[in-house]
Amino acid sequence: IFKYGLIGSFLGIVYVSYALYRESNPRKQTPQSATFENGSKRKTIVILGSGWGSISLLKSLDTSQYNVIVVSPRNYFLFTPLLPSTPVGTVELKSIIEPVRSIARRSASEVTYFEADALAVDPTKKTVHIKSVGEKDYETDLSFDYLVVGVGAQPTTFNIPGVDKYSSFLKEISDAQDIRLKVMNSIEQAALLEQDDPERARLLSFVVVGGGPTGAEFAAELRDYVDQDLSKWMPSISKEIKISIVEATPHILSMFPQNLIDYSQDLFTKGGIDLRLKTAVKKVDETTIYAENRDTKEMESIPYGVLVWATGNAPRPVAKNLMEQLGPEKQNSRRGLVINDKMELVGAEGSIYAIGDCAFYPGLFPTAQVAHQEGDYLATVFEKLHKIDQLKFANESINDANKIKSNNTKIDKLYKKIDKFHYHHYGSLAYIGNEQAIADVTVNGYSFKGAGAMTFLFWKSAYLGMCISLRNKFLVAMDWCKVYFIGRDSSI
Ligand code: FAD
Ligand code: NAI
After folding, report:
1. Confidence check: pLDDT of 492 > 80
2. Which of 162, 304, 320, 386 is the most buried (most CB within 10 A)?
């Protein structure tokens, strides 16, 4: 057994090393060009965004069939499911990002990337106006044959006064860094004050508004950090820290079945997380949250030292602008760009597609799972559109009526083959703290609903498997080992 174990480990190390080497040393790519060898036009696809939807599309797309341009202000892909683990250092930020350029370099043909914001799309002229990110503003227009809008969403504040100014969101890397800084500063400032000073209690009150998965997972991570690490280095202060979740509805994690909600709420309460349910925040100032109890209609004041706002999504300006241009008859959802069952933007069918959180289609929710599948689906659509284009081009240069007829039949068949998008819901997972997770999943027809430590192992292996590169998987696994053996960092 020892001998085979040794050989197995050796082969495993060789395989992983080779795979990591291959990943960081991409092969030669074919250059972009205006036309193909047969003289037909090589069409341009502009992809906006570098998130779940856009990167899934880029990874699945045969880039030798198109000139592909990616535009995103974020020059990396962010593995959001592990973002709630980063403010407290369970997972390091560098471990869950993958540069767009390295993803682009691994595709068959050259992909152009511009680090820029898309400001406006002109659906008639088929152009997108972009502005560079950085100190100076460089602006330009890009022409496209097909545009894929995958710009995601921004955190919603429901225009509640004070939210934008005083709270932190949890959507981007910079948000995680901001929360970490605020938590550490609050703790260090509180340490300067007397124990009976109400200001000390305020500074040590960490409030999460929104009991959806973002808010609940972050509160769970924060509780872990306080219990497992801060308690070792600042035992007295760690006992004074109060973590609260303020949630407008009667439950947190409402996407899960009731028994898993009950299990999570019980674990949170036992762990000392104050669940303020049926409580809707109405106003925020520098030190206090003002919320209405939905039963009694009374207003409550909740002092806070750090406020994390996680109440869901709102459309980004570029998406709103596009919706306005296409008009309320075509674009009539406040949740995002209305698309049809082939991901085409209603009002700009055939040229503009929208995927992920920026898009709205009944029954599809703003999750990574949906965005990922939509990106993959769109790659298959573009493959068929390329074949159709090639057949149309062939028809232009031949005089044989039978051949043209046969090509037209093939074209019709290919159009028919562009199936509607079918979403496969594999279920939901959430980390609830204290090395426990909940799962409501269905894989290959088998469904599993569970909670606890074993589910946490399942959660870990599922998320490790979903990481976009081997490098990410390796780094995340190392981070988890580090936390297990030597704990999280207690400084910035
Ligand atoms: P995003 O991934 O948000 O990407 C949008 C991209 O567009 C970004 O690269 C952004 O920089 C870029 N962009 C923005 N504005 C512009 C512009 N003007 N021009 C060009 N580019 C632009 N879902 C799950 O299924 N499971 C989970 O466990 C899970 N965990 C999550 C945890 C957190 C903390 C958060 C915030 C979300 C989580 N989600 C999860 C939801 C999931 O992250 C989103 O549904 C998913 O990211 C949507 O993918 P997307 O491509 O539409 O948008
Ligand atoms: P969400 O929309 O899922 O939850 C927001 C919560 O905030 C709701 O429960 C809502 O009732 C509450 N809320 C709204 N306004 C409020 C107010 N004024 N006061 C108090 N509470 C208020 O948003 P979240 O968690 O940011 O998730 C966004 C998307 O990302 C969802 O589709 C979610 O499924 C997905 N996601 C999935 C994860 C997972 O599968 N583990 C993890 C994180 C996000």
Report:
1. no
2. 304
Question: Tens digit of pLDDT for each residue in 285-324?
Answer: 999 999 999 999 999 999 999 999 999 999 999 999 999 9
- Find the ligand nearest to 437 CA: 2
Q: Which ligand is nearest to the CA of 249?
A: 2
Q: Which residue, by CA, sits nearest to atom 2 of ligand 2?
A: 312
3-state class (DSSP) for residue 313: strand
3-state helix, strand, coil in the chain (%, to 5): 45, 25, 35
Quick one: pLDDT band at residue 129, thresholds 50, 70, 90? very high
pLDDT digits (tens, 9 = 90+) for 323-372: 999 999 999 999 999 999 999 999 999 999 999 999 999 999 999 999 99
Strands of the 127-132 sheet, one edge to the other? 116-122, 127-132, 139-143
* Cα–Cα distance measured from residue 359 to residue 343, given in angstroms and rounded to the nearest whole number: 8
* Sign (positive or negative) of CA dihedral 315, 318, 321, 322: negative
- Which atom of ligand 2 sits closest to the CA of residue 249? 11
**CATH classification code of 163-311+426-486:** 3.50.50.100
For 102, 375, 425, 476, the CA distances from 59, given in Å and listed in that order, are: 11, 9, 21, 21
Whole-prediction pTM value?
Answer: 0.95
Separation of CA 66 and ligand 1 centre (Å): 25
| CATH 3.50.50.100, applies to 31-75+115-155+314-417 | yes
Domain locations in the chain as residue ranges? 31-75+115-155+314-417, 163-311+426-486
What is the number of the ligand closest to the CA of 337? 1
What is the predicted ipTM? 0.98
User: Of 357, 376, 467, which is best to mutate to test ligand 1, by the most ligand atoms within 8 angstroms of its C-beta?
Assistant: 357
